[in-house]
Specification:
The protein is α/β, with parallel strands linked by helices and 410 residues long. The strands form five sheets. Strands 1, 2, 9, 10, 11, 12, 18 and 19 form an eight-stranded mixed sheet that branches. Strands 15-16-13-17 form a four-stranded antiparallel sheet, sandwiched between helices. It has helices at 14-25, 65-70, 104-111, 117-132, 135-138, 146-152, 157-172, 181-193, 204-211, 251-258, 327-338, 387-406, and strands at residues 5-10, 30-34, 45-48, 51-54, 79-80, 85-88, 93-96, 197-198, 217-221, 225-228, 232-235, 239-247, 265-276, 284-287, 295-298, 311-319, 346-358, 371-372, 375-377. The two termini are 16 Å apart. Helix content is 32%, strand content 24%. It is built from twelve helices and 19 strands. It has three domains: 5-43 and 203-263 and 367-406, FAD/NAD(P)-binding domain (3-Layer(bba) Sandwich), CATH 3.50.50.60; 45-79 and 197-202 and 265-358, Protoporphyrinogen oxidase, mitochondrial, domain 2 (Polyamine Oxidase, Chain A, domain 2); 97-193. Bound molecules: flavin-adenine dinucleotide. Flavin-adenine dinucleotide binds at residues 10-16, 33-36, 41-43, 56-59, 224-225, 248-250, 253, 268, 353, 356-357, 379-380, 385-387, 389-390.
Length: 410
Amino acid sequence: MSDDADVIVVGAGLAGLRAAHVLNDAGRRVVLVDSSPRVGGRLASREVDGHVLDRGFQLINPAYPELAASGVMDDFDLRRFSSVVRFTDGDTSFELGDPRRDPRRAWTALRHPDLGVTDALKLGFALGVLRFSSAAAIVKGPDLATRDALRRLRVSERAIDGVVAPFLRGTLLDDDLATSWHYSALVLKSFTRGRPGTHPRGVAALADAFASRLTSTTLRLGETVRRVSAHSVHTEGARYDARAVIVATDATSAHSLLAIPDPGWRAQTTWWLSLPRVPDATQLRIDTRRRFLSSALDLASAAPERAPLGRSLIGASANGEFTADHDAAVRDDVARLYGVPVREVDLIARDVVAKALPVLGLPLDLHRSSERDGVIVAGDFLQTPSIQGALVSGRRAARRALVRSVAGGQ
Ligand SMILES: Cc1cc2nc3c(=O)[nH]c(=O)nc-3n(C[C@H](O)[C@H](O)[C@H](O)COP(=O)(O)OP(=O)(O)OC[C@H]3O[C@@H](n4cnc5c(N)ncnc54)[C@H](O)[C@@H]3O)c2cc1C
């Protein structure tokens, strides 16, 4: 029987798309199969009443090395937000940002109620070191939970609870800072190097940008893969043969196809709210009253196309799964954070994403085995729970498949 392709990739999330992208650039024929009717996996966006909503609160950081190396950002319409973060209770605000971009930030940092001079200097120094350290240097040595690593750096509990944890919890989906310090340090490094942004068509546009570059890939969407082996893939009604097979699904699906351990998931709930356009709202807002919201951001401040004319689109998120019982409290909090009467805040949607990020093990291991029974494996759960992690895993899987397809199988 002749092969249907050189390589079959199962899963058209970012890991699978990146794998197909690298294989196409090397001249290989690829069949890319996904159970969903669209590409992108967890990167998903939709339109609701003139608003473009992502499936959960997601930002794209152009400083992710793998994203930059992919070339996809060259003509990507990324709309960046401010690099300054506003800690606010609605009445009083403190803005923290990079003093190299704006020297006034050093002064405001010192006025933050949870940051004394010593903490401000320690954290500023640590961020400066991370900015110029290589990823390899950052992950060298023993890893610790982020809170423990900060204690070891002698950052005070007050600064950890008042500044670092509120800043990181929305990215790590971890309220306790139990996540690997090596990973947190990589995340902080990426924030010192780039300003995250969004796209007028939502975060799904990033997956579309990868898909549009696939020249010699046949997309099979809406086909669920039931069984895989080193050289074949079985869906409900079809079988595909190739020299190599890559499984680039999420962790739970990889577990059912290949019995790979499932690390479990961290959940996120995002409320999407519409309110009259707020001027100068490109800063991430963190609620210093410390209720359950991690942060809020006006997506329309950078991409006005994402909301009807004259409206702001606020994405407000919290870690965990929340029901409608919390909707009223979220409207109150967002009204306070943006200084508008609560009657002017309309709830558009609430996204509860139970499987948002795979739980990251401690210590961080960026070299986990990416092969099972002759099948090559990719996915963010093998690297880091991020766009960067998914892309790196996809590229690495493609390199393995390239070797195998040159060798003629096996
Ligand atoms: C709410 C939320 C917020 C996030 N925020 C950020 C952020 O701000 N910054 C950041 O960097 N990252 C963020 N992430 C993480 C990032 O989106 C993911 O790490 C990345 O998209 C994972 O890509 P992946 O290809 O590994 O997996 P997935 O996107 O899960 O792709 C797996 C694909 O496999 C398919 N599949 C599964 N089983 C089968 C089967 N049996 N047959 C066929 N197809 C199958 C699925 O349909 C899916 O398309 C966020 C994620 C979520 C959900």
